[in-house]
From TrEMBL:
Phylogenetic placement of the source organism: Bacteria, Bacillati, Bacillota, Bacilli, Bacillales
Keywords: DNA-binding, Transcription, Transcription regulation
Protein's UniProt keywords contain ATP-binding: no
Annotated protein name in UniProt: Transcriptional regulator
UniProt-listed InterPro entries: HTH-type_LysR_regulators (IPR050950), LysR_HTH_N (IPR000847), LysR_subst-bd (IPR005119), WH-like_DNA-bd_sf (IPR036388), WH_DNA-bd_sf (IPR036390)
């Protein structure tokens, strides 16, 4: 088998189509089919099932996928190490992130990194905490920003993001300097269902309290609009808030609820030179802001 065949294999997995894989690789549909056919013939097994809706990995293809991604990752590391030894900086870094971090931190961080390493391409994959963690473990991304990641990943801690209570502007609790979760137990509660809500739920459970949950909302902007309209109250990470939320009262919590955000990789010993440089850039920038 050849590296090109493995690249074609990944392109078909990514696009779900021989035609779109060809477009991605600037190759013909017949060329993609031929490469996959030769690979299947060499391995003696079908890698994809074909139908009118596209192509789908077979069970064996799913097992092989992780190995192919690992091979291509090592290949990228070889190219980057060779480029670095020639005094060049090149390569591609695939980065996972959750929406509030993408919106508030990623633009400045990417701009700073590109100013130092203009030859390195940055690809952003945005998803929930669970999706980003799964992408890291499956090799879809090289590294990812996560809040309180699970065991099994190497994580560099970057910053802490405190949660705050958000209330309608005319809410009776707006006059308090701080809000306790006990004060919110009987309020109509809007839960931000994006992965960050588990810390809020845990805080209530640890104190034997229950929530008067009214709605579960996926989008940050939606929950702000609903609080502004007086539909309920919520507890959210401070990072999701605009500098001055319109018609929303924002109060710190006592005791505090904090999510710790870090940059995670599958293994610190397996990162490419470009990814290692990105991690160092992130650490430097957050150290400057602490």
């Amino acid at each position: 088998m050849t590296l090109f065949q493995l690249e074609v294999f990944l392109a078909v997995v990514q696009t779900g189509s021989f035609t779109r894989a060809g477009e991605l690789l600037n190759a013909s549909q017949s060329g993609v089919s031929h490469s996959i056919g030769d690979l299947e013939k060499e391995l003696g097994i079908p890698l994809f099932t074909r139908n009118r809706k596209g192509v789908k990995l077979t069970d064996t293809g799913e097992q092989i996928l992780a190995h192919v991604r690992e091979i291509m990752n090592h290949t990228e590391q070889i190219h980057q190490a060779a480029a670095a030894s020639r005094g060049m900086n090149s390569g591609t870094i695939r980065i996972g992130s959750f929406p509030s971090f993408s919106a508030n931190v990623i633009p400045e961080l990417f701009q700073a990194f590109r100013s130092h390493y203009p030859g390195v391409e940055l690809l952003l994959f945005e998803g929930s905490y669970a999706e980003v963690e799964a992408w890291i473990k499956a090799g879809v991304v090289d590294l990812g920003f996560l809040a309180d990641p699970s065991d099994g990943l190497d994580t560099v801690q970057l910053l802490s993001d405190p949660y705050v209570a958000i209330l309608p502007a005319n809410h009776p609790l707006r006059g308090h300097d701080m809000i306790s979760i006990e004060q919110l137990t009987h309020e109509p509660f809007l839960s931000l269902k994006s992965g960050c809500e588990h810390l809020v739920m845990s805080a209530f459970q640890e104190r034997g309290l229950s929530l008067n949950k009214q709605f579960e909302v996926a989008e940050n902007s939606t929950i702000l609009s609903m609080v502004e309209a007086g539909i309920g109250v919520s507890i959210v990470p401070s990072m999701i808030l605009p500098a001055v939320p319109a018609n929303v009262a924002v109060r710190p919590l006592h005791p505090p609820i904090i999510r710790n955000i870090g940059l995670s990789v599958l293994s610190q010993h397996m990162v490419s030179p470009a990814a290692a440089a990105f991690i160092k850039e992130a650490q430097t920038r957050f150290l400057e802001h602490t």
